[in-house]
Amino acid sequence: MTRGQAGAEPARKRASQARSLMTKQALITATIECLWERGYAGATIAEISRKADVTHGAHLHHFGTREELIAAAVDALFQRMIGEFELRFSKLPSDIAARTEAALDHFRDLAIGQLFGVVGELLNAARTNESMAAQMRGYGASQRMQQRQMYIKIFGAAAVEDPQVFYWLDTTFAVYLRGLSVLQATRTPKEIEEQWQRWKQFVLPQITARLTLIGADMPSG
């Protein structure tokens, strides 16, 4: 092998790795779009491959099964959500009441976006698809851990360790807003907003009163 050939080999390897990464990202992006636009049943490998502009079997090299590809796409969507949260977290006010209201509105924005809609589709599919159910159990455990870290970054570890604070935060994010996301299929945006405002008017004083009572120190951005 000549010196030129030896030097070209790492360059070819880097180019191959770059193409592989681009293909993987294209598959993930296309999967998210298919799940959002067509639901689980419509997110077929053929449709995902067409949208990603890759060969039909490309997913096998990067993800193996359709369920593994879908789980990876949902995780990527959740990571994107966390990135958006990190940006907004740095701008939250330090006042307890204002900070809590801003955090609740941020939770609402997350819930009516792609993430909860896509996850809802997959949870329905998991009822009758054991392979999908296994993927969602792994995703669920990771999501719960990251949700808790999100609460901690907003309100501090001591506040989140308080059972009442954690109960109201998790009831809002993981229960009420998940239900509100489902209702988007049958309610107008105005009705969804009215539902949210009624819940916020109820839960905001509960959280702020408890945070004040336990003397929670709000983390700095």
TrEMBL record:
Domain HTH tetR-type: from-to ranges: 21-81
Protein name: TetR/AcrR family transcriptional regulator
Assigned keywords, A-Z: DNA-binding, Transcription, Transcription regulation
Entries under SUPFAM superfamilies matching the protein: Homeodomain-like (SSF46689)
Domain of life (superkingdom): Bacteria
Signal peptide: none
PROSITE patterns linked to this entry: HTH_TETR_2 (PS50977)
Native source organism of the sequence: Devosia ginsengisoli
Keyword Transcription: yes
GO molecular function: DNA-binding transcription factor activity; transcription cis-regulatory region binding
Record feature DNA-binding region, as residue ranges: 44-63
Pfam families associated with the record: TetR_N (PF00440)
Keyword Transcription regulation: yes
